């Protein structure tokens, strides 16, 4: 089911959609080497295959960890003869220096268009010599709608998919297949294939009925609850956050258990990090930091042990003082930006590190705070139209933010006294 051309790629439309960067490269036939990084099953290999199919260049696949320099030499010889070869190099973060040194001149000549694939952060895991010769693109987990499109294609494609089978996929099974794979299309298609090929038609019928229990078995991932609208997943996550926000420890642990019983570690981790900064925030910053540590530990050890640091974090957040002042402050600032009319940056704050800035009056009246007592001096920072605007409204729900409130008020008063 891999796409044969760029139009068939499912998801990643921010990269391959009309007018987007990779589509532009393909349409103009001006390909450059690139690194695609992101979680498994999100389309890195598919994008490489689609690029090759759309450009008609030869396409080869190697693994940086397991394939030797000799295999790279074979690709290089082919590139010399045929002109250009697109090389998908999986696990590029494990490329050794001898292999890298061999590849570099071929990348610079353009004979090999390298598409490196990795689940690691390339800015940390990949050698600078390779990074400097490639463009780096992040691929993200597919949405449920993306996976649903791919599943429907697989069920209707008689050549490459499961179209030769008479499959009836129930709506709740389809929803669970799209949702429980957390954006990993490979896992979704593998589970679907296993379900179809291992299910016998009932009572002599030719129809293969794929129900929710079958998909759960093939995915090894239980649904939260069987509901006709498919909203239970979001309902439980919503109840989880609202229980922590409301400081109900027992309810929060109950909903945590329901999420973990379904195997949905990813949603728990993402939601906990959001809660820590949205609902606890400045009332107790150390709790947010401890939540990051707990989530990191959960990701490293996985289920079932992950339940332990996550339970610690949930109890910690439930019993912590709460404040949503930070999210309110940034949302207020964004609202002003979206409305427009917020004015120009004051001249004394503009960049003065270039020739001619002084003539324009940029930065000339700037007061450097570190030159003054207590490293502070009153001056205007906001644009004129909103110079008296206040976004942050501190709360008294924790010692830390109480101190911030006092400091915020004191600085505001001193700033106004200058006028």
UniProtKB/TrEMBL annotation:
Keyword terms of this UniProt record: ATP-binding, Nucleotide-binding
Under the GO molecular function aspect, what terms does this record hold? ATP binding; ATP hydrolysis activity; DNA binding; enzyme activator activity; single-stranded DNA helicase activity
GO terms in the biological process aspect are:
DNA synthesis involved in DNA repair; DNA-templated DNA replication
A Pfam match is AAA_assoc_2
Show where the AAA+ ATPase domain sits: 30-142
Q: According to its UniProt record, which protein family does this protein belong to?
A: Belongs to the AAA ATPase family. RarA/MGS1/WRNIP1 subfamily.
Spell out the protein name for this chain: Replication-associated recombination protein A
Q: What organism is listed for this UniProt entry? A: Liquorilactobacillus hordei DSM 19519
């Amino acid at each position: 089911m891999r796409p044969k051309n760029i139009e068939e790629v499912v998801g990643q439309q921010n990269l391959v959609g009309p007018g987007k960067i990779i589509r532009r490269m393909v349409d103009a036939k001006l390909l450059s080497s690139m690194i695609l990084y992101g979680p498994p099953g999100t389309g890195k290999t598919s994008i490489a295959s689609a690029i090759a199919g759309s450009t008609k260049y030869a396409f080869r696949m190697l693994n940086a960890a397991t394939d030797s320099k000799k295999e790279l030499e074979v690709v290089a010889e082919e590139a010399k003869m045929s002109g250009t070869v697109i090389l998908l190099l999986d696990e590029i973060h494990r490329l050794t220096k001898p292999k890298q040194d061999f590849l570099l001149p071929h990348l610079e000549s353009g004979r090999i268009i390298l598409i490196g694939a990795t689940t690691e952060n390339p800015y940390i895991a990949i050698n600078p010599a390779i990074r400097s010769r490639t463009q780096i693109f992040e691929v993200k987990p597919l949405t449920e709608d993306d996976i649903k499109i791919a599943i429907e294609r697989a069920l209707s494609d008689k050549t490459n998919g499961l179209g030769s089978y008479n499959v009836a996929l129930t709506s709740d099974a389809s929803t669970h297949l799209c949702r429980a794979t957390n954006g990993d299309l490979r896992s979704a298609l593998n589970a679907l294939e296993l379900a179809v090929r291992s299910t016998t038609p009932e009572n002599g019928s030719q129809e293969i009925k794929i129900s929710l229990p079958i998909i759960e078995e093939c995915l090894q991932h239980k649904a939260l609850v069987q509901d006709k609208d498919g909203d239970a997943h979001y309902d439980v996550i919503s109840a989880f956050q609202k229980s922590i926000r409301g400081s109900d420890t027992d309810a929060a642990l109950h909903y945590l258990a329901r999420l973990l019983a379904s195997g949905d570690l990813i949603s728990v981790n993402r939601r906990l990090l959001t809660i820590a900064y949205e609902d606890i925030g400045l009332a107790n910053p150390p709790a947010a930091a401890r939540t990051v540590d707990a989530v990191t530990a959960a990701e490293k050890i996985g289920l079932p042990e992950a339940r332990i640091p996550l339970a610690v974090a949930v109890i910690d957040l439930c019993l912590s003082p709460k404040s949503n002042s930070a999210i309110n402050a940034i949302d207020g600032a964004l609202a002003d930006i979206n409305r427009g009319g917020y004015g120009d940056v004051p001249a004394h704050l503009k960049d003065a590190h270039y020739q001619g800035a002084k003539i324009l009056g940029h930065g000339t009246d700037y007061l450097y705070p570190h030159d003054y007592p207590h490293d502070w001096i009153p001056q205007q920072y906001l644009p004129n139209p909103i110079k008296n605007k206040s976004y942050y409204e501190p709360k008294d729900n924790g010692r830390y933010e109480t101190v911030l409130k006092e400091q915020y008020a004191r600085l505001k008063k001193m700033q106004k006294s200058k006028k």
